[in-house]
Amino acid sequence: PKKRKSTAQATQEKPQTVALTIGTRYYGAHIGSFKSRESAERGWKIYAKQLPAIHKTARHAIYEIDLGPPKGLMYRLVAEPSTSKADVEKLCAAVKAEGGYCRVVAFKPS
Protein backbone atom coordinates (compact mmCIF):
# COMPACT_ATOMS: atom_id res chain seq x y z
CA PRO A 1 0.00 0.00 0.00
CA LYS A 2 1.07 3.58 -0.73
CA LYS A 3 2.06 5.79 2.17
CA ARG A 4 0.06 8.97 2.56
CA LYS A 5 1.56 12.19 3.79
CA SER A 6 0.06 13.61 6.93
CA THR A 7 -1.78 16.91 6.62
CA ALA A 8 1.00 18.67 8.52
CA GLN A 9 3.66 17.38 6.13
CA ALA A 10 1.65 18.24 3.04
CA THR A 11 1.00 21.75 4.33
CA GLN A 12 4.64 22.25 5.29
CA GLU A 13 5.87 21.25 1.84
CA LYS A 14 3.45 23.46 -0.08
CA PRO A 15 4.81 27.01 -0.48
CA GLN A 16 2.49 29.55 1.07
CA THR A 17 2.21 33.28 1.47
CA VAL A 18 2.25 34.13 5.15
CA ALA A 19 -0.22 36.44 6.88
CA LEU A 20 1.82 38.89 8.95
CA THR A 21 0.75 40.91 11.99
CA ILE A 22 0.45 44.63 11.27
CA GLY A 23 2.98 46.73 13.17
CA THR A 24 5.24 43.81 14.13
CA ARG A 25 8.91 44.06 13.08
CA TYR A 26 9.93 41.16 10.86
CA TYR A 27 13.11 40.13 9.12
CA GLY A 28 13.09 38.39 5.80
CA ALA A 29 15.48 36.96 3.25
CA HIS A 30 14.99 39.42 0.37
CA ILE A 31 15.47 37.34 -2.77
CA GLY A 32 13.92 39.56 -5.42
CA SER A 33 11.91 42.69 -6.30
CA PHE A 34 9.21 42.76 -8.95
CA LYS A 35 6.91 45.24 -10.69
CA SER A 36 3.75 43.31 -9.72
CA ARG A 37 2.53 40.99 -6.96
CA GLU A 38 1.78 38.33 -9.58
CA SER A 39 5.37 38.48 -10.87
CA ALA A 40 6.65 38.10 -7.31
CA GLU A 41 4.51 34.96 -6.84
CA ARG A 42 5.91 33.54 -10.08
CA GLY A 43 9.41 34.46 -8.88
CA TRP A 44 8.84 32.48 -5.68
CA LYS A 45 8.01 29.34 -7.67
CA ILE A 46 11.12 29.75 -9.82
CA TYR A 47 13.46 30.34 -6.86
CA ALA A 48 11.97 27.39 -4.99
CA LYS A 49 12.91 25.16 -7.93
CA GLN A 50 16.40 26.61 -8.47
CA LEU A 51 17.66 27.02 -4.90
CA PRO A 52 17.49 24.12 -2.42
CA ALA A 53 17.66 26.52 0.57
CA ILE A 54 14.53 28.29 -0.68
CA HIS A 55 12.83 25.00 -1.55
CA LYS A 56 13.23 23.89 2.08
CA THR A 57 11.23 26.84 3.38
CA ALA A 58 7.49 26.85 2.81
CA ARG A 59 6.89 30.45 3.84
CA HIS A 60 7.24 33.71 2.00
CA ALA A 61 5.82 37.21 2.06
CA ILE A 62 5.43 39.96 -0.51
CA TYR A 63 5.25 43.59 0.49
CA GLU A 64 5.09 46.88 -1.36
CA ILE A 65 7.92 49.34 -1.22
CA ASP A 66 8.16 52.69 -2.99
CA LEU A 67 11.73 53.10 -4.22
CA GLY A 68 11.02 56.53 -5.72
CA PRO A 69 12.01 57.60 -9.23
CA PRO A 70 12.90 55.94 -11.51
CA LYS A 71 11.88 52.53 -10.09
CA GLY A 72 8.71 53.55 -8.25
CA LEU A 73 6.45 51.00 -6.55
CA MET A 74 7.96 47.51 -6.31
CA TYR A 75 6.91 44.25 -4.68
CA ARG A 76 9.64 42.80 -2.50
CA LEU A 77 9.74 39.00 -2.18
CA VAL A 78 11.08 37.70 1.12
CA ALA A 79 11.55 34.10 2.16
CA GLU A 80 10.89 32.85 5.68
CA PRO A 81 9.66 36.06 7.31
CA SER A 82 10.52 35.85 11.00
CA THR A 83 11.00 37.92 14.11
CA SER A 84 14.42 36.22 14.43
CA LYS A 85 17.13 38.04 12.49
CA ALA A 86 19.60 35.19 13.20
CA ASP A 87 17.34 32.63 11.48
CA VAL A 88 17.05 34.83 8.39
CA GLU A 89 20.82 35.43 8.32
CA LYS A 90 21.37 31.64 8.23
CA LEU A 91 18.94 31.28 5.33
CA CYS A 92 20.64 34.09 3.41
CA ALA A 93 24.05 32.50 3.93
CA ALA A 94 22.71 29.23 2.48
CA VAL A 95 21.12 31.00 -0.51
CA LYS A 96 24.35 32.88 -1.25
CA ALA A 97 26.35 29.64 -0.99
CA GLU A 98 24.06 28.25 -3.72
CA GLY A 99 24.77 31.27 -5.95
CA GLY A 100 21.54 33.18 -5.29
CA TYR A 101 20.95 36.79 -4.30
CA CYS A 102 19.87 37.32 -0.71
CA ARG A 103 19.84 40.26 1.68
CA VAL A 104 18.40 40.41 5.18
CA VAL A 105 15.76 43.15 5.37
CA ALA A 106 13.68 44.44 8.24
CA PHE A 107 10.10 45.47 7.61
CA LYS A 108 6.81 46.19 9.35
CA PRO A 109 3.58 45.33 7.55
CA SER A 110 1.16 48.23 7.48
Summary, kept brief:
The protein is of the alpha+beta class and 110 residues long. The protein contains 4 helices and 5 strands. It has a 5-stranded mixed beta sheet.
- The counted number of beta strands is 5
- Structural class designation: alpha+beta
Secondary-structure element sequence? HEEHHEEHE
Taking Cα atoms only, what radius of gyration do you get, to the nearest Å? 15 Å
The total of helices stands at 4
Mean of all residue-level pLDDT scores: 81
Helix content: 25-40%
Largest sheet: 5 strands, mixed
Low-confidence stretches: 1-15
The 3D shape can be described as: globular
Major β-sheet strand ordering: 1-3-4-2-5
Please give the alpha-carbon distance between the first and last residues: 49 Å
What is the percentage of strand-forming residues? 25-35%
How are the secondary structure elements laid out?
Layout: H1 7-13, E1 16-17, E2 26-34, H2 37-50, H3 52-56, E3 59-66, E4 73-82, H4 85-97, E5 103-107
Parallel strand pairs: 1-3
Antiparallel strand pairs: 2-4, 2-5, 3-4
